[in-house]
Amino acid sequence: MARKRWRACPECDLVVALPALRAGHSASCPRCRRELTYRARMPAERVLAYASAAIVMLLLTLPYPFLTFSLGGMQENIILLDTVTALRQSDWPLLGLLIAMSIIVLPGMYLLAVAYVYGSVASRHYWPGSVWLARAISHIKPWLMTDVFLVGVLISLVKLLTLADIGFGWSFWAFCGYVVLMAKTVSNVDSDWLWFALQDEPAPPTGTQLGEEAWSQHLVGCNICGLLNRPEDIHCRRCARKIRIPGSHSVERTVALLVTAAILYVPANVYIMMSTITVGGVVESTIMGGVVQMLEMGSYLVAAVIFFASIVIPVLKIVVLGWLCYVVRYGQPMSMQRRARWYRVTEFIGRWSMIDVFVVAIMVALIQAGVILSISPGPAAAAFAAVVILTMLAAMSFDPKALWQPARVNTQAQEWIDEKH
Ligand SMILES: [Zn+2]
Ligand SMILES: [Zn+2]
């Protein structure tokens, strides 16, 4: 089965031939070192097993107590969905929706789609809708945040230990299992293998040359299944995804998202993130105030995590992405490899900024015991969540290929777009 499996590297756009891989091996781009594909042992069965187990764990996290909270002889059991209902009741329905989407709805949809598509592949029968769902898997993946939520839970516990006794319920342990199985599922889903199994491998367009950029040969690599297409095909020949022309207006869109994020970053830091009402009075804290509070309590690790996640990461991301946009437009004497490395940093760290929003949500839910103590989110929580989402969208809309061939890609992209219209 010697087929030409040629790909354009999604990061630097070099056209490379994928070798036949043995189980446990991966292939990387020879120029920018980005991993292109990974071959697991018995991929279909393995992913199906992990995804099904993760679905069972997700279901187990729902009915049982997640945490127990005792204060002054009163004990309260909190189930996972209480974090969502508590936010809805305290007039923050959007934050509640955000939590529900990022820890239950999107991961649940992802797991069901993965189980269905890999079931279809493992049974060697084509089940209807598999192609559509396989595309959905790629779209949902960047928004999975179960691991970030778990770290948020641990931080909230440290914050609350001074106020009350906290215990773990069954559902908490199921959630830990869910996070691990989810990570296993995600790391074993390889879109290259999946699309080959679902739709085989159409030959690359005639005249394709290895070792040159796809763009310079009038080719575009599909950003879902990786297949090489001609831009005039409009839709990918294998997965039918609309072909996204690299570099087209990506810089303008990224800059617009970054500017909005930077503006919202101001209220996120100036306004109250969380207010705690105790018998002693009301304590209102901003993001930085929360860090100082943790330092005063001697929880240096938590203070450091919140400081990095909420202050350093968003600023770093806005500055680095903004600077990369500048580089693409005006050029800079810096090696391509180093630019690509900076881009990967922003891509990797993005989701972790969400920790502080999760911390507030969990604390609000935990303190619904409410008589002696109550906690509610402040306007900064909404502004900050928006900053995180906007910077994630900015990183997604930025096209790293432009870093490897700044001037040419952009002018050529514009010419092609002009031709099309
Ligand atoms: Zn590459
Ligand atoms: Zn495709």
From TrEMBL:
Keywords: Cell inner membrane, Cell membrane, Membrane, Transmembrane, Transmembrane helix. It is found in: Cell inner membrane. Pfam families: PqiA. The chain crosses the membrane at residues 47-67, 94-119, 140-161, 167-186, 254-280, 300-328, 349-373, 379-398. GO terms for cellular component: plasma membrane. The keyword Transmembrane applies. Its main location: membrane. It is a multi-pass membrane protein. InterPro entries: PqiA-like (IPR007498), PqiA-like_proteobact (IPR005219), PqiA-PqiB_transport (IPR051800). Belongs to the PqiA family. PANTHER family: INTERMEMBRANE TRANSPORT PROTEIN PQIA, INTERMEMBRANE TRANSPORT PROTEIN PQIB-RELATED. This is Paraquat-inducible protein A.
